[in-house]
Amino acid sequence: MAKEKKVEQITDMEQDFAQWYTDICRKAELVEYASVKGFTILRPYGYAIWENMQRILDGEFKKTGHQNVAMPVLIPESLLKKEGELVNGFAPEVAWVTMGGSEELEERLAFRPTSETMFCDHWSRVLHSYRELPMLYNQWCSVIRWEKTTRPFLRSREFWWQEGHTLHETAEEAMAETEQQLNCYADFYEKVLAIPVVRGRKTDKEKFAGAEATYTVECMMKDHKALQGGTSHYFGDKFSRAYDVTFAGRDNKLQYPFQTSWGATTRMIGAVIMAHGDNNGLVLPPQIAPIQLVVVPVAQHKPGVIEGAMALRDRLAAAGYRVSIDTSDNSMGWKCAQYEMKGVPLRVEMGPRDMENGQCVMVRRDNGEKTFVALSELEQKAGELLQAVHDGLYEKARVNLAEHIYPAFSIEEAKALQEEHGGFIKTMWCGEEACELAMKEKAGMSSRCIPFQQEHLADTCACCGKPAKHMVIWGVAY
Amino acid sequence: MAKEKKVEQITDMEQDFAQWYTDICRKAELVEYASVKGFTILRPYGYAIWENMQRILDGEFKKTGHQNVAMPVLIPESLLKKEGELVNGFAPEVAWVTMGGSEELEERLAFRPTSETMFCDHWSRVLHSYRELPMLYNQWCSVIRWEKTTRPFLRSREFWWQEGHTLHETAEEAMAETEQQLNCYADFYEKVLAIPVVRGRKTDKEKFAGAEATYTVECMMKDHKALQGGTSHYFGDKFSRAYDVTFAGRDNKLQYPFQTSWGATTRMIGAVIMAHGDNNGLVLPPQIAPIQLVVVPVAQHKPGVIEGAMALRDRLAAAGYRVSIDTSDNSMGWKCAQYEMKGVPLRVEMGPRDMENGQCVMVRRDNGEKTFVALSELEQKAGELLQAVHDGLYEKARVNLAEHIYPAFSIEEAKALQEEHGGFIKTMWCGEEACELAMKEKAGMSSRCIPFQQEHLADTCACCGKPAKHMVIWGVAY
Q1: What is the Cα–Cα distance from A348 to A360, expressed in whole angstroms?
Q2: Angstrom distance (rounded) from CA A100 to CA B132
């Protein structure tokens, strides 16, 4: 017999949300710190979540005609600097390669912080005619941004992401692509991660360095802070002019194409933790769960129980579910706590009496609800209950978001609401950066986005009283 | 109407094999040079081949219990240097990050040339008990080795690969893993890439820096040069001692685990080009071809032809084939040349008369053979012909290998055979490095491997005349 392992405790989220978050990252074995400061290791369970996210997103990208490529990871400094705003935005965070083997390099090379420059450089050499447009590219890779303070998934010096980069004949097509990809992220959050989002446009102050417009999906975490979920950028022809990307148009004259980029990162795992997790650990939406169901035999020393549990596992696997079984000699209590920590959506229990009755018990991770399931309906019920877990998670997150958006009509009121409730504060805004800076300084909030779904709360800006142009959502963000 | 595009010519392989190779890389749009010297861009078509390779290999790895992870890309110099042989092997080729943002780093960081050190560092912190073994990890990533001369896929400063790293309780288990993964590569080459391999062990001179034993699969290209296809390394407990990786054994005493690593790279794409390509371009084995069948309508201006071709495409897609259709206004000749250049295994032609006869024509890329296929048998015949292309490619490559292995009994004879025929030269060998150096210096060949399938050609070493220990295969390698 094995020594009984201790069930590891995590900090309560009400007591210390930040520590609760870190505890889950470590105890669910998602991530581990590396010996390089600010860098992390994605462990098998964490990486398996990322693989599921990749597979689903990649499938969506391909459905709309995108193709994957691989660009070099190092960018010559001169190339990075051709477009002024981009380099100004990223220069303080770039890691530089200055030596190759024992030789000092003539020109230092940036570890990519983002790859607009490389794509443009490539396109300047391969694009000739409007017939080759659009070019719809994506790459899955890691990037480095030399952040001062780091947290697993949310902010680390190296992170894993996809960066889509596309080139179009017209501004309208590029703008449509920007919107399409933003909606792709929004659908992924809502339909796969079970996290509702607010779709909108970033203010000029908050947009991507070098972009003409940045669209964003903003989510709310359980502590009512905001998390930027994914962004999609429209560049106009700014980069193609800077990098001399041209094509012969339908009129046979040289033209500059229009460009977009869009990215989502391993920070989505952080979003899942903080949107759905609880004091027993991680809670995973079924579509990205590495293990969707775990079969735990009850009284497994009794004859036939393990065989029965294995038959259950085999049927679920044959039906296409990601299923695991635990016949280890750990106690039932330890096993249950362990799979709760790991966020497995459904636990399937079956003991001798269940077998006699031709049934098993399915226990939902999101609300603890137990359902007796006749073995004749096993596969169908598994699917229904997984869907119920997804729906239950989405509904809780939807209520959390809906109940924590507050209108405000002055900076003071916005500040008071944020301090009392947290969440998103919506106000009218004149469009001036000065008012954003005032909100940041006085109420500690940044503008999250100008939502596509506008409301007319008032005629004037909550900050300065001048005529309002937009409704803005403010929040404290990760 | 579009202007007729010119069909691009490539150099004949008999005239200039190296130029023929580069021409295919560029004209089949697999790869493009980057503006960073020695770095390449994997274009959509090249990357799609890599994705197919990844999907199949990754599936095999997972079947045998391996899990993917992601390790940091940067390795502190002190960590890299803990195991002396490894760092001596790789130090001249390391790219160094010395600045993060505007700060000079206290310790320079290596862009990973390989990740044994990172895995060991991680394991030294997370491994506790024999119950957690084996740890069967893999990662897909890019690495940098600062090579002096580079060629697309074969040798570039950055390349994409998978690196498996595993940890075991006993030496026997680690050795079994080393063999299993070598066989995994061999099967992949033979059953997926249609390239026969010679399996064997590297000599001490040629083995991986720091390994106790390196196993390899060696392939022969159409110019009869050798290409190392993939390697699998057994480390014993050398690294775990250097990095202080320990576990509590069954006897509750601290022990050092035994380790393996194994890797295969984008160089496999180079192997496919040089094993199967011809003077019309790339020839792809069906399992990794991004497009397995391309439907090209004949006389497509005639009524109903395009619709018929689309119906064909839809049926093949529904049957699970990767299929494409070309209804552009380019000429039939241009289209055929284009899909030959891209190595599409089967071209499916259908014109008005075929439609009347309820048939189409399938043309094999590997040998130009045409088959009339009744539409009622479309899906089945497509599968059979794709299999025939695979078998045909394998058989040609098998004959090429079998006909270009020559026994030799002296360095002079080995040299003469290599100069006259190229290929693999097999000789007996005493086991001394001096004889390897002599063969290199006098006959220009390195030892490729000590094949697992040994033959007794003679009693004495072909180089020095001392008693022989093994039969070795020599060759000129990429």
Answers
A1: 7
A2: 39
Stretches in chain A below the pLDDT threshold 70? 1-8
Nearest by CB to B99, from A75, A98, A125: name it.
Answer: A98
pLDDT digits (tens, 9 = 90+) for B69-124: 999 999 999 999 988 888 888 888 999 999 998 889 999 999 999 999 999 999 99
| 3-state secondary structure string across B153-217 | CCECCEEEEEEEEEEECCHHHHHHHHHHHHHHHHHHHHHHCCCCCEEEECCCCCCCCCCCEEEEE
Measured between beta carbons, the chain B residues lying within 8 angstroms of A75 are 36
Of the partner residues A67, A122, A131, the one whose CB lies closest to the CB of residue B41: A122
Distance from CA of B101 to the nearest CA of A (A): 5
Interface size A-B, in CB pairs within 8 Å, comes to: 151
**Is there a contact between A50 and B70 if contact means CB atoms under 8 Å apart?**
yes
Contact A258, A173 (CB under 8 A): yes
Which residue in chain B has the smallest CA separation from A48?
B68
Coarse DSSP helix, strand, coil percentages of chain A, rounded to the nearest 5 percent: 35, 30, 35
Structure confidence at residue B7 (pLDDT):
58
* pLDDT tens by residue, A181-236: 999 999 999 999 999 999 999 999 999 999 999 999 999 999 999 999 999 999 99
Give contacts of A73 with chain B, Cβ < 8 Å. Answer: 73, 111, 142, 144, 158
- Give the residue from chain B lying closest to A135, CA to CA: B44
Tens-digit pLDDT profile for residues A266-289: 999 999 999 999 999 999 999 999
d(C-alpha A297, C-alpha A331), whole Å: 11
Integer Cα distance of B437 and B419 in angstroms:
18
The string over A319-339, giving b where at least 16 C-beta atoms fall within 10 Å of a residue's C-beta and e elsewhere, is: eebbbbbbeeebeeebbbbbb
Q: What is the DSSP string of B246-292?
A: -EE-TTSSEE--EEEEEEEETHHHHHHHHHH-BTTB----GGG-S-S
Q: What is the pLDDT of residue A86?
A: 80
In the predicted model, what is the mean pLDDT of residues B185-202?
98
Contact B211, B234 (CB under 8 A): yes
Strands B254-255 and B346-350: unpaired
Interchain CB distance below 8 Å, B98 and A96 = yes
> Does residue A152 contact residue A25 with C-beta atoms inside 8 Å?
yes
What's the pLDDT tens digit per position in A298-339? 999 999 999 999 999 999 999 999 999 999 999 999 999 999
Nearest Cα to B188, choosing from B68, B58, B67? Answer: B58
Q: Are A70 and B142 within 8 A, CB to CB? A: yes
Q: Which of B3, B8, B30, B41 to mutate to test the interface with A (most CBs of A within 10 A)?
A: B41
Coil, strand or helix: which one is A247? strand
Contacts of B48 in chain A (CB under 8 A): 67-68
> What's at B283, amino acid-wise?
V
Quote the CA–CA distance of B132 and B169 in Å, as a whole number. Answer: 9
CA dihedral B146, B36, B140, B99 (to 10 degrees): 70
Question: Whole-number mean pLDDT of chain B?
Answer: 96
Check A101 against B146: CB less than 8 A apart.
yes
Cα–Cα nearest to A200, from A176, A183, A220: A183
Q: How far is B396 from chain A (nearest CA, A)?
A: 31
Paired with B406 in beta bridges are: B425
A96 CB neighbours in chain B (<8 A) are: 97-100
Instruction: Give the global pTM.
Output: 0.96
pLDDT at B208: 93
Cβ atoms of B368 and B340 within 8 Å: the answer is no
Identify the CA nearest to A288 among candidates A14, A4, A30. A30
Strand partners, B81: none
Are A349 and A369 within 8 A, CB to CB?
no
